[in-house]
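for ur thesis appendix - Lipoprotein. copy paste whatever u need, i formatted it the way the template wanted (i think)
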Amino acid sequence: MKRYCLSLVAALLCVACLSGCSLLPQYSDPARMEIDGQTFVTGFYDHLWPDGIVVGEGEPAAFESEYHIWWKVDGAPFELYCAQNKEALYWNPAIYCRESEFEEVEAYYADPENYHFYIGRYLEEDTSVLLGNDDEAYAERAIGFIMELDSTFGVGGIFDPFMEKTVAFSGEVSGYDRVTIYRVSKDGFFTTLHMELAVCDGGLYRYRSYDEQKDQTIFYRFDDDVSEHMVNLFERYELI
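the 3d part is after this line
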């Protein structure tokens, strides 16, 4: 059966396309919805993408509202619904849980213990390697920093809260190894962003910008011990 799943790149493009219309109800996801006498709400999966929540072609919807199509999520540890905006260009659903269980659901998907951790080459899913328990703490620290950077996306210059974490390389640097670190919930439904990271000059970085006036490439640097451990893993699994 043909199945539709969320493309992270496509989703970002879709969000960008719709952001200018986000105040219009037909382009917005409702904050809450009454379903079978229960109130369901969204917003519990900050910094996560519902990459594993898919709907088969022709799979009957649970119901439709004016601007959304709703399906119940099968196999979830909680009662969840996904809602696809009828105007969306790509499969990019909003996920809802019972309001009475919101804190429990939010805590569950925020807990790294409920995830598997992976590394790989950026945009090459077939290179992904499942990490063992001894490596998860370092991977989680890296992912935590990635989430912090993602939360301040678009903030630059003197207002960048991570300015002290930047390092400058001379010239326009582009020939680095592109890798990624992420985790996937054990139920398979949610993943952290598969952000492009750089292994350059033996260290792990996140590209920030190129300063044309100074002819410098600016990267965010990870903590030294995290950088060393993760680079060793990329080398061990022949990803760089």
